[in-house]
């Protein structure tokens, strides 16, 4: 998993508080930007990580709408 994270162009941590180890360590191995999408507060943030504290369905509905309209 560490190797895959290292080769990622974008690391999305979706629906997790990033508080359960060892999985919580994976974002630090990312070779690209890290974005956390979680309704609640996320655990310790990786340097430069963006955190979106909203409902996952709402966030990805917006993403789908943006992508489908070419905006």
Supply database-style keywords.
single chain; 71 residues; alpha/beta; three-stranded parallel β-sheet; 2 helices; 3 strands; 25% helix; 15% strand
Quick description:
25% of the residues lie in helices and 15% in strands.
How do the strands and helices of this protein lay out in sequence?
Elements: H1 2-6, E1 11-14, E2 34-37, E3 50-52, H2 56-68
Cα radius of gyration in angstroms: 13 Å
Number of distinct beta strands:
3
Tell me about the largest β-sheet.
Answer: 3 strands, parallel
Secondary structure category: alpha/beta
Descriptive overview:
The protein has 71 residues and is of the alpha/beta class. Helix content is 25%, strand content 15%. The chain contains two helices and three strands, in the order H-E-E-E-H. Strands 1-2-3 form a three-stranded parallel beta sheet, with no helix packed on it. The mean pLDDT is 86.
């Amino acid at each position: 998993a560490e190797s895959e994270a290292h080769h990622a162009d974008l690391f999305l941590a979706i629906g997790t508080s990033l508080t359960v180890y060892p999985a919580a360590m994976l974002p630090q191995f990312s070779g690209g930007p890290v974005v956390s999408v979680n309704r609640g507060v996320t655990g310790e943030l990786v340097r430069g990580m963006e955190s979106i504290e909203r409902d996952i369905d709402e966030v990805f509905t917006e993403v789908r709408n943006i992508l489908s309209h070419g905006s």
